[in-house]
Amino acid sequence: MTALASALDARVLVLNRLYGAIRVVDARRAFTLVCKQVAEIVSVENGNYVSYDLRTWADAAEFQRQFEHDQHDWLQTTRLVIAVPKVIRLLGYDRFPKEQVKLNRRNIYARDGNRCQYCGKHFSTRELTLDHVVPRVQGGGNTWENLVCACVKCNARKGGRTPSEAGIRLIRPPVKPKRNPAIAVRLGSPKYQSWKAFLDEAYWTVELT
Prior knowledge:
Elements: H1 3-8, E1 11-15, E2 21-26, H2 27-35, E3 39-45, E4 48-52, H3 54-59, H4 61-67, E5 74-76, E6 81-83, E7 87-90, H5 105-111, E8 128-132, E9 147-151, H6 152-158, H7 163-166, H8 181-186
Parallel strand pairs: 1-7
Antiparallel strand pairs: 1-2, 3-4, 3-7, 5-6, 8-9
């Protein structure tokens, strides 16, 4: 992956006009919204929210390169070098979305922290599988409460049985997360610490896209 493609794939938190977090988009979409002047860039600086349009954000690039280089992803073209914003605010959108956290492989892996829920060991995504706690042959469905990460060895040992039938135990009961579990993973990176200022548990039920 080229540096340009990598920068354009960086994640950007989107706020509504009232500074409520509503979704996460890639940098391509974020720059498009800012260029169309339907969004502005928001930066958390010394505890304050500072707003930028595309021109003033580009003007700040020299200072950012000198003093904050490692805190940003960088987009470099033949005409300019500019930091990828971490947060943008929509200028004409007040609502909160009603979507629920999607049940998919990525979100289950993030919820379980890439940890086998039977042996407790951490694995790469290539070494993990999804296991139905109550097997499908016994009527178990695809739900948050019935799907967990399992390593290949534990999944094979369990087979088409429940944990109790296989003589193994879950590390913790699987539950549906209140917010997108991948957000918590991303907040572990110093680059995304500014997101914490806008994340509200009561509203954060949006999807990574």
